[in-house]
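Supplementary Methods. Inverse-folding protocol.

Structures were first reduced to a discrete structure-token string of length 479. This string, shown here, constituted the complete conditioning input.
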């Protein structure tokens, strides 16, 4: 069995041996791996690894080759996180402040501009393989939003349970309550279902996304075309089921097996990049959409922080972020400066010459100088903390000022405060001691922090947010 597996892997790698055409240093390739509900404390380099049941040597080594952020922040839920990442805007602006609980029509309107569209306009080949979660109706798929090709699921992995439920047939209870499919599509074509997304396919989908990603890099490198490979993998969203190749590999359970699987898959991407001879001209990013998984038996790790996704706690907001660009991003760099996922769009645009839209509010900032080691300081000092469509507080430097809190992402009541709670994250990383005298002695932080909120609210009054469920065609009202 081991011999057969090695033979198959060898055949997969063989086509990569061909030389790539000369790369354009002004248009670096981009590989963006986005995990799903992958908490801060899962990787060895972030304090996890063997203490979570599986070493992560490939990703740990990747961190030593680039910049590792300990204060990279995301939105608190899946759909908002992906909207913010791809548009450079607070998710609430795009009508995607919350996961689509109450409306089957959701996702990005055609009016939004994604990083894929911006890069495509610069001659990039673009592909997305994995979980989309930004729309599942006509005009809302990845190939409607700047990607040349897509393979994956439109919504979320919990829908892999539906295949075995006889009520979920698209007729009995609701047209959108149907067995989920895995789709593939190319730009200009309607997505085509290629497999039922059941629990068996749930085990295999990330491996297939990696295989397709490697093939995409090979094809575009051979063609001499810069590429943007977006890999929104489905792990470690519930249910966490390893592929047959990794099942039982660690002896520490399914979650640990998937952690080992994720490390190996990342290693295969990195090996392919090396074999293609494009490492020096490829920006490689590994990060996550949210804080850790919260459901038994697959509870994830937030490391030194408290909370899971669907909360405004640090465990919800802070996720791993590693970026490698040999010869450009300093190797072995570590920073606790605040960066938000909204910054990824303008930063990558700056690196590639892509245009950031000028006709709308862009909340992200260009972190190019910071990533390249030309500045020790981030271009951002704070941001507004949203959970769903509600503002919970403000994060500014090492402080949190929270007017709402919830301890668990599922089933817990939301607490609202007339007087916000102040937390110094350096002395109170788990946000447990708002009455600490050291916080009370530093209430001056409210002035710069509330400036962040005031500026945000002013921008919303000038450019109102798109309402959830807004159909296409959409155009903002003229001021």
């Amino acid at each position: 069995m081991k011999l057969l597996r090695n033979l198959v892997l060898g055949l997969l790698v063989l086509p990569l041996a061909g030389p790539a055409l000369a790369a354009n240093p002004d248009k670096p390739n981009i590989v963006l791996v986005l995990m799903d509900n992958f908490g801060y404390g899962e990787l060895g380099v972030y304090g996890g690894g063997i203490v979570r049941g599986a070493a992560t040597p490939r990703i740990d080594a990747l961190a030593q080759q680039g910049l590792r952020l300990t204060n990279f922040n995301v939105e608190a839920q899946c759909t908002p996180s992906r909207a913010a990442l791809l548009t450079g805007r607070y998710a609430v602006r795009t009508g995607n402040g919350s996961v689509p609980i109450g409306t089957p029509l959701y996702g990005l309107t055609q009016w939004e501009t994604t990083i894929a569209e911006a890069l495509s306009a610069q001659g990039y080949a673009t592909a997305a393989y994995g979980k989309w979660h930004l729309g599942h109706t006509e005009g809302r798929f990845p190939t409607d939003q700047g990607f040349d090709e897509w393979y994956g699921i439109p919504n979320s992995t919990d829908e892999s349970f539906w295949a075995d439920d006889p009520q979920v047939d698209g007729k009995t209870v609701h047209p959108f309550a149907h067995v989920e499919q895995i789709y593939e599509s190319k730009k200009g074509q309607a997505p085509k279902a290629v497999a039922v997304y059941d629990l068996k396919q749930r085990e295999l989908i990330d491996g297939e996304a990696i295989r397709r990603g490697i093939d995409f890099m090979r094809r575009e490198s051979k063609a001499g075309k810069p590429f943007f490979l977006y890999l929104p993998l489905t792990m470690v969203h519930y249910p966490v089921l390893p592929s047959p190749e990794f099942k039982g590999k660690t002896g520490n359970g399914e979650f640990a097996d998937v952690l080992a699987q994720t490390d190996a898959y990342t290693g295969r991407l990195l090996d392919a990049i090396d074999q293609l001879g494009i490492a020096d001209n490829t920006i490689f990013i590994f990060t996550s959409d949210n804080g850790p998984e919260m459901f038994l038996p697959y509870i994830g790790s937030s490391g030194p922080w408290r909370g899971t996704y669907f909360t405004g706690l640090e465990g919800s907001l802070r996720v791993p972020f590693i970026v490698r660009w040999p010869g450009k991003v300093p190797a072995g760099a570590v920073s606790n400066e605040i960066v938000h996922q909204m910054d990824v769009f303008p930063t990558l645009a700056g690196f590639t010459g892509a245009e950031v839209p000028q006709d709308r509010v862009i909340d992200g900032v260009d972190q190019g100088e910071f990533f390249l080691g030309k500045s020790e300081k981030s271009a951002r000092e704070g941001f507004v903390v949203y959970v769903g469509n509600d503002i919970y507080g403000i994060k500014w430097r090492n402080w949190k000022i929270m007017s709402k809190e919830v301890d668990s992402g599922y089933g817990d009541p939301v607490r609202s405060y007339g007087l916000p709670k102040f937390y110094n994250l350096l002395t109170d990383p788990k946000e447990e001691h708002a009455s600490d005298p050291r916080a009370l002695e530093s209430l001056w932080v409210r002035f710069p922090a509330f400036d962040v909120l005031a500026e945000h609210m002013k921008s919303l009054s000038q450019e109102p947010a798109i309402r959830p469920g807004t159909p296409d065609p959409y155009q903002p009202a003229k001021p």
